[in-house]
Design a protein that fits this description.
Elements lengths: L3 H10 L2 H6 L11 H22 L1 H9 L21 H6 L12 E7 L8 E6 H9 L13 E5 L7 H12 L3 E3 L10 H11 L3 E4 L1 H13 L11 E4 L6 H11 L2 E8 L3 E6 L6 E3 L4 E6 L13 E7 L10 E9 L12 E7 L4 E3 L2 E3 L1 H8 L5 E10 L2 E11 L7 H15 L3 E6 L12 E3 L1
Parallel strand pairs: 3-4, 3-5, 5-6, 6-7, 16-19, 17-18
Antiparallel strand pairs: 1-2, 7-8, 8-9, 9-13, 10-11, 11-12, 12-13, 14-15, 16-17
The structure holds zinc ion (ZN).
The site of zinc ion has 6 residues, from loops.
């Protein structure tokens, strides 16, 4: 039951458009489709109106494009508004503010793996509270008696803190901020805490889930003895075959939640494990042609563009993420009607081989189905040489590396992807506390 205090907080902080649609609970995956559609339309109009009236950045953008808030009558009218790019956000930290600077409560920063000036993402307290209060209990089942380990970075980016607050504020579960490779956070310590506290949920990245499993093996902690209900992956993508390996190692369901530091949560995976359901109460997702900017139809692959529906003070409208994806046209067997989409990796990470573009996750999916291959690998790209795929990889435990094995793996991989492959088998690749580097340029 909602307490009087909670009611008061909600009354005070929720914009009227939210209050009209979310009465007691804020759970878009349990709302009737017609109410959710109506909410999304009205929330978009509210965001655009506030941006136009209070943010010089968006006012100028819309004026140049000849668009006024009253032109946004339906969700499809969003395409009339120009995009917001990473480069624009790198110019001035305060660029997006549609509120007083003193109302800013939290600032995150993304430097990106490709370098460049940092991007600062800000939220007011109201927005922050609101974004963490909206939960998806069917897609993201977390109960009050769950004990959640957040093994994601807490510094600078929002990865750790964002899921931390989702568990704590949204689901009212218990949270342990174990972090990922910070000053006090080592895989060994995290494994010790796992043995002592017995988490039921862990949020981490795909590569760090392997690092933790390796530390658990060193410490003789049997992961399958933990009362785990689920592992949530965030921060990096991985292929279905890599996920299968994680499920086997950890003895639990492994699901994805995806988002960016700039936009917050974008989507969550259901147990059908075939695409992510968009967090439609939080964001609008468009897929556009990266060259022309034209909005693409479901099924067509393009750049993922995000508009935040719950950010009224510091809006983010039509943000180009530089990630590739496509909307799924078919309904999901799980019954949730929130639209699904598929991620295809970052635009900058696509590997060109014999004139064709490959997502590293697509290639990884075949690689991880070869049982002799270990859990750490790199695709080695040499500028000017795109006739074959070079794969540097560890072998699985108990497997002896040999030239014969390398040749056998190359034949299998070529049969799967249609590109000649060359394997370099190594004993151990360097472990990293940062995002795993799957594509190296030599
Ligand atoms: Zn589903």
């Amino acid at each position: 039951m909602t307490s009087r205090f909670e009611n008061r907080i909600r009354e005070e902080i929720l914009p009227p458009v939210i209050r009209r649609y979310f009465s007691q609970s804020l759970c878009p995956d349990q709302m009737p489709l017609t109410s959710l559609s109506k909410f999304r339309k009205e929330a978009l109009q509210e965001v655009v109106t506030r941006a136009y009236e209070n943010s010089p950045f968006y006012r100028q953008k819309m004026t140049l494009a000849g668009v006024k808030p009253q032109d946004i009558k339906n969700l499809s009218d969003l395409a009339k508004i120009p995009f917001t790019t990473k480069d624009e956000l790198r110019q001035d930290p305060w660029t997006l503010l549609a509120c007083d600077k003193k109302d800013v409560s939290i600032i995150h920063v993304s430097t990106g793996t490709t370098g460049g000036q940092p991007i600062y993402t800000m939220q007011t307290w109201k927005e922050y509270y609101l974004n963490h209060s909206v939960i998806y209990p069917f897609l993201h089942p977390v109960a009050q008696d769950d004990l959640c380990f957040v093994a994601l970075p807490y510094e600078m980016s929002s990865a750790g803190l964002s899921l931390h607050n989702k568990f704590l504020v949204g689901h009212q579960a218990a949270v342990v901020s174990v972090g990922k490779g910070g000053a006090y956070s080592t895989p060994e310590k995290t494994v010790k805490l796992m043995g002592d506290l017995k988490p039921t949920i862990i949020a981490t990245s795909p590569s760090y889930a392997i690092t933790l499993a390796e530390a658990a093996a060193e410490a003789s902690l049997d992961l399958t003895s933990l009362p785990l209900k689920r592992i949530w992956l965030a921060g990096e993508g991985c292929s279905p075959a890599f996920r299968k390996r994680l499920e086997k190692i950890w003895g639990t369901t492994v699901s994805f939640s995806c988002g960016t530091t700039e936009s917050g949560i974008i989507a969550m995976e259901c147990d059908a494990q075939n695409g992510y359901h968009i967090a439609e109460g939080n964001v609008l997702v468009e897929i556009v042609d990266p060259q022309t900017g034209k909005v693409l139809e479901p099924g067509e692959i393009g750049e993922v563009v995000i508009t935040c529906l719950l950010r009224f003070d510091i809006p983010l409208i039509r943000y180009r993420t530089q990630d590739l994806g496509c909307l799924e046209p078919k309904p999901c067997p799980c019954g949730v009607t929130l639209q699904r989409f598929h991620l295809r990796g970052r635009m900058a990470d696509q590997i060109v081989l014999k004139g064709k573009r490959f997502s590293p996750f697509y290639l990884e999916n075949f690689l991880m189905q070869l049982p002799e291959v270990g859990n750490w690998y790199q695709f080695v790209v040499k500028p000017g040489d795109n006739e074959q795929l070079k794969i540097r990889t560890e072998v699985a435990a108990g497997v002896e590396p040999s030239p014969e094995l390398a040749a056998k793996l190359a034949v299998k991989m070529e049969a799967a992807i249609g590109i000649p492959c060359k394997f370099e088998l190594v004993n151990k690749l360097e472990r990293t506390m940062k995002k795993a580097i799957r594509v190296v340029y030599e």
